[in-house]
Amino acid sequence: MKYSVRVILALFVLAVTTNAHAIRIKDLASFEGVRDNQLIGYGLVVGLNGSGDSDQAKIQTQSVVNMLERMGITTSVNDIKIKNVAAVMVTATLPPFAKQGNRLDVLVNSIGDAKSIAGGTLVMAPLRGADNQIYAVAQGSILTNSFAFGGQGASALKNHPTAGRVPNGALIERELPNSLIGKAILNLNLNIADFTTASRIVTAINDKFKSAVAVSNDPGSVSLTIPDVYAKRPVEFVAALERLEVRPDVASKVVLNERTGTIVMGESVRISTVAITHGSLSLVIKEAPQVSQPGALSSTGETKVVSRTDVKVDEENRRLMVMQEGATIGDVVRALNQMGVTPRDLISILQAIKAAGALQADLSII
Prior knowledge:
Elements (H helix, E strand, L loop, with lengths): L4 H15 L3 E2 H4 E3 L5 E10 L11 H13 L15 E9 L8 E8 L10 E8 L5 E8 L5 E4 L4 E4 L4 E10 L12 E6 L4 H15 L4 E5 L2 E5 L8 H9 L2 E2 L6 E5 L4 E4 L4 E2 L2 E3 L4 E7 L2 E3 L11 E3 L2 E7 L5 E3 L3 E2 H11 L3 H13 L3 E2 L1 E4 L1
Parallel strand pairs: 15-26
Antiparallel strand pairs: 1-14, 2-11, 3-4, 3-6, 4-5, 5-10, 6-7, 7-10, 8-9, 11-13, 12-13, 15-16, 17-24, 17-25, 18-23, 19-22, 20-21
């Protein structure tokens, strides 16, 4: 491995420096009901240069017939053959408090056997939510940042030509009912449930508003009672609350990835009293056959092959290091750095410390 334990130590120092600062509540939690919603729809991509669905995929042909009939043109599935159309699924994410007339980015993915949808145009496709109601309509030119060309003898392909995006391609037609006016209680859900973090959030909020505004019944949520002074100004209350800073508390954890040599350790990881030694044994065996033969013009003797084996054993002399109880992971990294271990060796050492019961943290191997 070309990684250096000094790099790991530098990352640890950076992590400790970062964790020492408080974080805004808006980055630690979100309000209940204020979330994204998934939209999905079916549509047609037209204008393809012969790279659309083949005749074997009847879905796009039937869709074209249905679309033409809605426009007053009567035709039959058997009367048309098209290669410039592809059937696609259209997906988008509806953000909270989105209003009519706002635009969304949409993703377009082929569901037939089209070779490419690059250069095509998505025809008006309604997007529905989980309640089967239409919330947006998508239409526009597709960007794939790819191409696919070829003939009988050769072909060229870049990226993924059967999936693309329409920037600002969906127009919101229906709003989600989500209003803060008239609500007396708001629920704040923590991104990572933790008793200490929830308690610190409650303390920070109550200190800010000088009353028992917040209360927590479990480590994953905080219940907020909107003060009377903010009864008609809930947005100002939420804005003042989100800006409060709290230092979160996290469980002690060490994450190891042996494939890449990556080691990530939390600030609160502690080590019990343990003795650590690190050494390696190198055994090298060389076979060097030699030929033994009689002298020149000799009338007696015979030629023989004689084996010659050289054995060399090299064992590094490493001193035993004792880590005292309560040592931080920074102390461990500094001590192991003095021993000259590599990240891969450090992974083995941490696994051994955990097996000995001296690593007071959760060891996760990915």
